[in-house]
Amino acid sequence: MNLKELYQEIILEHGKNPRNIGKTENFNKDAKGHNPLCGDSVHVYLKLDNKNKVEDVSFEGSGCAISMASASIMTDLVKGKEENEVREIINDFLGMIKINPNLKSKNLNDDEKTKLMCLSGVKQYPMRVKCATLSWHTLISAIDNKNEEINTEKFD
Amino acid sequence: MNLKELYQEIILEHGKNPRNIGKTENFNKDAKGHNPLCGDSVHVYLKLDNKNKVEDVSFEGSGCAISMASASIMTDLVKGKEENEVREIINDFLGMIKINPNLKSKNLNDDEKTKLMCLSGVKQYPMRVKCATLSWHTLISAIDNKNEEINTEKFD
Amino acid sequence: MNIDTIKKEFPIFDEKIQNNDLVYLDSANSSQKPKVVLDRINEFYRKQFSNVGRSVHYLAVAATNLYENTRSSVQKYINAKDKNEIVFTKGATEALNLVANTLGQMILEPNDEVIITELEHHSNYVPWHFLRKSKNIKIKFAEINEDGDVPIENIEKEITNKTKVIAITHLSNVTGSILPIKEITQLAHSKGIIVVVDGCQGGPHLKLDMQDLDCDFYAISCHKMYGPTGLGVLYGKKKWLEQLPPYQGGGGMIREVKKNGISYGDLPNKYEAGTMATAQVIAFDQSIKFLESIGIDNVIEHEKKLIEYGQEIIQKNNSVKLIGNPKNRGGVLSFTIDGIHPHDIATILDEDGVAIRAGHHCCQILHDKLGIPASARASLGIYNTKNDLDKLNDAINNCKKIFDLK
Amino acid sequence: MNIDTIKKEFPIFDEKIQNNDLVYLDSANSSQKPKVVLDRINEFYRKQFSNVGRSVHYLAVAATNLYENTRSSVQKYINAKDKNEIVFTKGATEALNLVANTLGQMILEPNDEVIITELEHHSNYVPWHFLRKSKNIKIKFAEINEDGDVPIENIEKEITNKTKVIAITHLSNVTGSILPIKEITQLAHSKGIIVVVDGCQGGPHLKLDMQDLDCDFYAISCHKMYGPTGLGVLYGKKKWLEQLPPYQGGGGMIREVKKNGISYGDLPNKYEAGTMATAQVIAFDQSIKFLESIGIDNVIEHEKKLIEYGQEIIQKNNSVKLIGNPKNRGGVLSFTIDGIHPHDIATILDEDGVAIRAGHHCCQILHDKLGIPASARASLGIYNTKNDLDKLNDAINNCKKIFDLK
Ligand SMILES: Cc1ncc(COP(=O)(O)O)c(C=O)c1O
Ligand SMILES: Cc1ncc(COP(=O)(O)O)c(C=O)c1O
Fold first, then answer.
1. In the predicted model, what is the mean pLDDT of residues A24-48?
2. Contact (CB, 8 A) for D28 and D377
3. Which residues of chain D have pLDDT under 50?
């Protein structure tokens, strides 16, 4: 995938018209993330129901097309999934964006995998991987009820 | 002049048996000098008579052969000379040890010049020039009644 | 002056970067290095290497002389009165920390005021912030006007009888504004205020004349001035460097060391504790010679033409907004494109071989003031040509196409 | 291990120095550099140069990765737990200043005690002296015994309930004594005392295993470790580096900068303000690889044999007095000759191409204790041979002849 395709295929769609923007009503978990290098920032709001299923999820933030698209795709994908499924998806995505060639998760259907794989082109741009992963790390932090702000400088 | 000659010809004679060592009785001027690089230190004592002639001069100190020989030769040479003659000799020596090929002073006779020129070999060893000049700078300081300790790091 | 000949002196432009010719527009970040500098580093390590100042053997004496030669060259290049007013540091950042720290130890009292500007790089703000924390000094920000300039009135406004220091950049690394240091110094000195200049961008782009500027301190970053990394220069007036306390302690900066007390060496040793960046200092002499061989007036003229050209083509380009419109602009063009984040711009331009920087360029205060999280920045060096700026413009157009902008 | 092959990797030994083959016995001052390191510097500047960490263009990304690779190499080489425990500084002196300064800001209170030894280099005394002045801490000197060693009992004796820090050298640059850091750390930690190690001479000569030593901080001087000048490494346990305040302020070390406050970045950025010595860090990776290719055990064995040989011939030489007789001696032989000042020795030896150092070697406390103003020092590197020591001995004999000594 070349850069033009990376940007065009999906990022633009999400980057320009991101889904799930705003503050979920009655959210019961949330976390903030910040990428000091780019100035990207994101705030993820999560509403888990009493069976630990994601009833609703949304984000507020500002940043580059890659980080906004990634947050937008992520929130779409995890909606309706259970907490442990969400964790598994996050790990799968983080693995894919760093080293693995493909997604392996059983909690994603083929359509969902295709959507996510459009972010795989970011691999070739190591400085931008942090843009793509910011919202995902922030989501973990929200699930884990960690109060500290996620900072991309903290993880590699 | 090669190094062996430099050391042998005169320095050893003075370095090993320095003249004018000690504290001149009734000195009326003195100054201290220090070379932080080598740890050389010297204290010059001067007795000027009421016509500003050097009645007596001596030094105490410790250091390398070059600095001790230089102090020894210097004290020998300036004894009996007038203050302004001494200043002229010092300048001549400092000029010779840094750039001039020869001594030009009219206040030194040929014998005295030959004695001094044996230090000229130090030129080839720039790190050691400070050893050769320490006592001379200290003598100026004594004449000028400067109270601050002479430090070879201060002048080039 | 023939830029093609000059460009040939920089080996990196012989390389293909990802199959492209390199269009290097990130010199405000760090400049490329001419061959003479690299050859000098190599030759020194291969044929002459020794530590300086401490041993009396042949190599050490030779290295010490070479090291001190650079000090003299810098002195002449910036027209300092005394060779001992030149202190080598690891970078401009260390130089500014040295000044803030030692002024903090001796001169600044609680509630004293330091004026900086909204243009300042973090390196000329954080060290003063440390004193705000430790000594309770106050920091005041002279504001920019709508052109991104800091007119002298905006500095004058902030002066009170508590003002002890004005610390300002010579040339903004974002707006390119050149500040009237000479006039600011006159004003400051008439009120007994110390002037510290962040000369990181002044170094490579402006004439450096300490007697004319008359500032008290001037910090230079050698790697931005066609020199090696890991080296900076602090110019400080002798009266200050003599009276201020030392900054770092260690070998070489002492006079006498006893168990119950220590006395410090004289200038320049007092501020050069430990083994210095010997090879880098020695090679920096070649950077100075390189700049002298071109002539700073020629550098300034060349960059002025380029910047005017760049300004013109960028201003004509739809949806691209230049940041700042300073009266006097040095070799920096920062911009935003409506609807495209600067990091996306930089990544896409890079694909076409055009290397620019995106971010807040260590000037978060300025970006906050401008109401933008980041900007894209093209910055010039002596090796840049109009062709580079044309390629920049083409790459911007490609980028806009990807984002469906006209 | 074939020393001749290793020596060939150092270009300087192909040179004639004043018509002599170079007998370089000043490695404790600074080591010579192998070709791989010099080639790496050159290649990086010529083909890949960019500043690190701040731009997203191709060259910047590549440089950042190379820079961080060295951090990982150092981590592995010294067996640190975490890559972020490795901080690059401009030298060991800065590393020690960083530790003293930040401990002074946060941990040390007036009347607290810091124990150092009589063997310490000024770089591990002056920074603590600054705190004696500014914070009224006390400095205590653990004494050497007649062999020039500091037995652990001499440290234990100085410990009181006010002791907060023990700051000690791993290997004395004058007596060659190797200190039992592991045991000292065990003792110190059992009493909640922080251990800071000056590893300048440990770096090139000893096995570096932070998990085994368990010290809290360890300072390394890269130019003594076959690396470029202008670079040092500070190892610090994560718990300390995380909780201590920053040292220098500037670009790269911040998280958020507002007019009324600043928050700092995480490790390792927090301690790497401003543009770092990029090229030097990247080239230092080759120094580590070079040392790894030889194997530190082989280095130690080689130097041990040499030092035993050197000790033997020097001890046999009339009127020459070795300084110290440590149980465990690293690659340093310091000596005096009755009736010849060390500076005269060094000058005369230099005439025969034998480069040694004379002076107090930045250890004035030790020289005062020994009752001598200066000493002559021959120190070893991996490239030295028995032949070098024979030449040293011959040159000493020449020197004695000039001074009419037997
Ligand atoms: C034991 C010791 N400590 C500290 C230093 C200072 O190291 P640097 O000059 O590289 O900062 C040295 C070297 O001069 C040394 O030998
Ligand atoms: C205006 C300005 N000040 C300070 C700095 C810091 O310089 P250095 O990173 O070389 O210490 C820079 C460069 O990044 C700069 O552009």
1. 88
2. yes
3. none
Contacts of C135 (CB under 8 A, 6+ apart): C104, C108, C109, C110
| Contacting residues for C73 by C-beta, under 8 A, at least 6 apart | C285, C288, C289
For residues C216-229, give the mean pLDDT: 98
CA nearest C102: which of C245, C271, C272, C262?
A: C245
C374/A contact by beta carbon, under 8 A: yes
* Ligand found nearest the CA of C94: 2
What does residue B28 show for φ and ψ, rounded to 5 degrees?
A: -115, -5
The answer to whether the CB of A29 falls within 8 A of the CB of A48 is: yes
Catalytic-role residue among C200, C222, C362, C363: C362
Beta bridge partners of D168: D197
- 3-state DSSP assignment of residue A55: strand
CB contact under 8 A, D359 and B37: yes
* Rounded Cα–Cα distance for residues D231 and D283 (Å): 10
Residue D309 contacts residue D333 (beta carbons within 8 Å): no
Task: Name the percent of chain C lying above pLDDT 90.
Answer: 91
Residue D6 in contact with residue D335, Cβ under 8 Å? no
Backbone angles phi, psi at C356, to 5 degrees: -125, 175
Q: Using alpha carbons only, what angle is made at residue D88 by residues D84 and D90, rounded to the nearest 5 degrees?
A: 165
Q: What are phi and psi of C371, to 5 degrees?
A: 70, 25
Domain ranges across chain B: 3-144
Q: Which residues of D touch C225 (CB under 8 A)?
A: none
Q: Please tell me the predicted confidence (pLDDT) of residue D389.
A: 98
Q: Which residue reads 């705030």 in tokens?
A: A43
Q: What is the ipTM metric for this complex?
A: 0.92
Answer yes or no: are the C-beta atoms of C100 and C130 closer than 8 Å: yes
Indicate the burial class of B149 (C-beta count within 10 angstroms; 0-12, 13-18, 19 or more): middle
A23 pLDDT above the threshold of 70: yes
pTM: 0.95
pLDDT digits (tens, 9 = 90+) for D112-165: 999 999 999 999 999 999 999 999 999 999 999 999 999 999 999 999 999 999
Angstroms from A140 CA to nearest CA on chain D: 19
Closest chain B CA to residue C61: B127
Residues C303-354: tens digit of each pLDDT: 999 999 999 999 999 989 999 999 999 999 999 999 899 999 999 999 999 9
Tokens read off for D88: 């690059």
Given this model, what pLDDT does residue D5 score? Answer: 94
Residues 108-147 of A with CB under 8 A from D: 125-128
C397 contact A CB<8A: no
- Dist CA D220 CA D236 (whole Å): 11
| Dist CA D47 CA D39 (whole Å) | 12
Residue D334, ligand 1, Cβ within 6 A? no
Question: What dotted CATH number matches B3-144?
Answer: 3.90.1010.10
> Contact D26/D392 with Cβ under 8 angstroms?
no
Mean pLDDT of chain D: 96
The per-residue pLDDT of chain B, averaged, comes to 86
